[in-house]
Specification:
Blueprint lengths: L2 H7 L8 H12 L22
Amino acid sequence: MDESKLKKFDRTGTKHSEETKKKISEAQKGKKRGKYRPRVKKDNKPEGDKQ
């Protein structure tokens, strides 16, 4: 992340350790398609025509 993005949040002294960074990145990888968010078919529209 570059400095301009960090300044937006303005949280000083909240840098993650390397160990924590690894855990976070692992969690991010599995987030989109996990146990509770199964793969959705592309042709399904999220809302609107539900039958």
